[in-house]
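Can you please make up a whole protein chain along with its backbone structure tokens because I've never seen that pairing?
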Amino acid sequence: MYKLIEQMIQDVIWFRSPEGTFDYISPSAQHLLGYEPQELVGTTIADYFHPNDTNHLQQLLDKVQDGQDVGIFTCRFRHKEGRYLWLENTFTAIHNKNGELVRILGVGRDVTRRKQAENRLLQAERIAHVGSWERDVQSKTLYWSDELYRIFGLDPKPSIPVEVMYSRIHPADLPRVKQAINDADNGSPYDIQYRIIRPSGEIRHVHAQGQVELKDGVVSAVSGSLQDITEYKLATESLQKSKENLKLAQKIARLGHWDWDIINDDLFWSDEVYRIFGMSAADRPDTSLKGFLDSVHPDDRDFVRQSIEDALTGESYDIEYRALLPNGRSSIVHVIGETAFGHAGTPVRLFGTVQDVTVQRQTEDMLRTSEKLSMAGQLAAGIAHEIRNPLTVLKGFVQILSHSETGDKGRYFELMESELCRIETITSELLFLAKPHGVSFEQRDIRVILQEVVVLLGTEAIMRNVLIECDYDDVVTMVTCEASQLKQVFVNIVKNAIEAMPNGGTLSIKVTRVHDSVHIQFTDEGVGIPAESVPRIGAPFYTTKPGGTGLGLMVSQKIILSHGGTLNISSQVGVGTTAEISLPAVFPTSP
């Protein structure tokens, strides 16, 4: 019967002599370890057990020889193929009737799969920073996994008193933890986040969860897991801080965000959008597109509605319009949006930002007006001289007519009418430039606007010995523009060119149409601008002219940009400067 059991059992049974060699190995060694039993007889444990386990194994065997119970020991045994198996071993000392040790009986069981599973679990715990634990309610003793000791920064032990854990909990969180443990002892769920202090002084955030185990209806133990959530906690706090900073930045910049659910026709507004529109969520019961359009100035609604429809087809959504406030006033807002499309290409969301630019636009208008008045003041002397000449002619003819009874009076009246028209033209141009105008875009021929500027500045050019030459294309050079604003830009550029030629010279103005753009080029023969200064031209308060403000070209850049065009300056010291403007051309429609 013993032989039958020995042959059928899967565990390896072996006998070890007092001298340390194997006296006997059961036949299962061949199946389990790859060795024939006779191959192992006469060898020692050092020949087959893993080097890291040999010393500990020998110490246990020495204790067994001394009659001590060492329980179960797990170690690695080298398979004949060279790989190692995990064996769970039990040892028993066998003595003769005289009490002398004759051999040690050992039984080894293959637990490789279980050990691999345990290692995978430990690896997963390390990766997820999760440790397992169990607490005996009666003894108040904790049993921790190795990962849990690592989280707390402690050396692994078979067990740990709960007071040791308490000593590592942040003092501010300790009362909550003790209360949670007390509640768990009474059957309540255990789920709490708190801080621990490692022996190094490092503070970590952990999340502990557990469930109770009942015995005869009484809680006998609580077991569960504990996860190190420090990185998550810090990331969450950083994200929350970023959100708060973003919210503050949006409030300072008066910038809000919005999101329109097209399918459900539901428009979300952030808190800052409500502030921009001067209302609260309670004041806005209708969150549909129609409800939004009600808050748009009536004169701008069609434009906004059309812009939204274009955005739903994939066009860019970047517009400015007037928002109608509850107090009856309006503010100017700049809105940028982007459309998200579904799998079928159907628009599902339109989202973006909105910014209150009222103060910015008012400031720009003030700058433009200030620059206009400044130009008007600078032109006053030249205009006065230009008007004085025809007035002198008129005065002389009046005197001649008052003393002449005969003669060709018709020719005198013709000359007088011509000079009066000249005075009217010059004064009209000066007033047109100086007085404020409402922004009204219309189609104009750029050559006509330029010619009006040349007439206005012609006298100043003559006084400074500057010749203005104009070269215009015969093709259509129509643009959609606000004429007074473009005239302000041209006056600024021409005046700069004239002032850059103190010894006289030629200013060439050339107008061409290239594809779908109209190009206006101003080239002078002035002193030029140093290469390092050219990139700064147009910056606020930067100027190369004594007593200048640097606002002229900045305002001009803004005006050209608002017309969808570009303004570029190039210069060479001692040669001259070229200012080139490009504007979208307008083509006549066929009848």
Q: What stands out?
A: The radius of gyration is 47 Å. The longest helix spans residues 358-403. The chain has a mean pLDDT of 81.
